[in-house]
């Protein structure tokens, strides 16, 4: 077996925003899969709370529709209860308190807009739903800039201690992201080579085929830099570049990630793009109904980590919407051999460790071998493949998805894969400086056709360094 079900204590999870998209599409299906796997013990309950006028039966029908027909679903639905509630007033709070029990573990999940974090935190405390063991989960966006992130941190800190706050980034729950740490720190093969002496550069790509998809109002005020670079890509960069922690525990891991962010130099080169019409898709300005919008839907940048391990090694980050394929990848590109004994053909071959986060999680290590057959020494690049779906076969389906793993980590009280307050603020400080730079320049994003690999400026950025982007392959 590739997956073991590790028991957790009986728990009570209160989901605020229980009728919203995130709850219906991610949180509740994740809990159902953990129930089906046998990881919701007797006594574990989920209480939904939202302003939508529903009763428990109505919410159960909504959850059943979101999950779809499944054997054993009724037993899961029996664990659910619902309360109509006003997050900013007092209506519904006595009913919520009455619906709660006295569990061994209580967690509250703020699946709501950040503007509601503070009033919810205050009322959770005021109505006796929080004690020293209560855990609170908050979703991104965690602030719009450094000032708002500090304000949110302060609002949460007024009601909860830092070790009770779980700032969730679902990318950190992906199996391959955690395997990145296992590959680096569990294998003598890689760690001695994981530095500027042997690594030519690192590419981190998060490409999406979708547009703004119902998030137009939020996205037009955020853009790709705030929506993706400040959190998802920053976290991937940290895990790729960080020093080995003294041990695999929350404080040690998050200390090392923070050091990476604080060592980041300002971007040497930054390209912004905005998708236009193409392949039957509308342009961004039409999707958001703002013909003059200067919001970027694509960012590519060159960053450096100013420390001994990585001095001079570029980290190329890119993310965008309406690109040619859906793909998230970290590619560690190693340097050429110092001297080739095989002639001019050898220069085209490099070792690359490609870590695929989506859509097909896994890793490939590209090695150079001799092409089989007679006729001389011809070199060929082949991958050592650890794509989970192919390597593990049907057992790959047993691997928990990101939300399943992270929710269970909340119940266990394990903060390793969650962001700390000072880490969030450091990431915003770096991002704010980058945003201020391109806003001061006053240049509009370069338009690229929907369905392409992004603006030409991103290609020029790489050409300037005599490098090429890896193909965006779904």
UniProtKB/TrEMBL annotation:
Q: Name one GO biological process term.
A: pentose-phosphate shunt, oxidative branch
Tell me yes or no: is Oxidoreductase among this UniProt entry's keywords: yes
Catalytic residues in the record: 232 (proton acceptor)
A GO CC term? cytosol
Q: Which residues bind NADP(+)?
A: 17-24, 51, 140
Q: Which reaction does it catalyse?
A: D-glucose 6-phosphate + NADP(+) = 6-phospho-D-glucono-1,5-lactone + NADPH + H(+)
User: What protein name is recorded for this chain?
Assistant: Glucose-6-phosphate 1-dehydrogenase
Which species is listed as the source? Rhodosalinus sediminis
From the broadest rank down, the organism's phylogenetic lineage runs: Bacteria, Pseudomonadati, Pseudomonadota, Alphaproteobacteria, Rhodobacterales
